[in-house]
Amino acid sequence: MSVFAVEYVYAAGSEAGRDEHRPAHRAWLNSFVESGRLLASGPFADGEGALLLFTAESEAALLEELKQDPFNVNQLISGLKVTEWKPVTGAFADYV
Question: What is the number of helices (H) and of strands (E) in the chain?
Answer without folding.
Answer: 3, 4
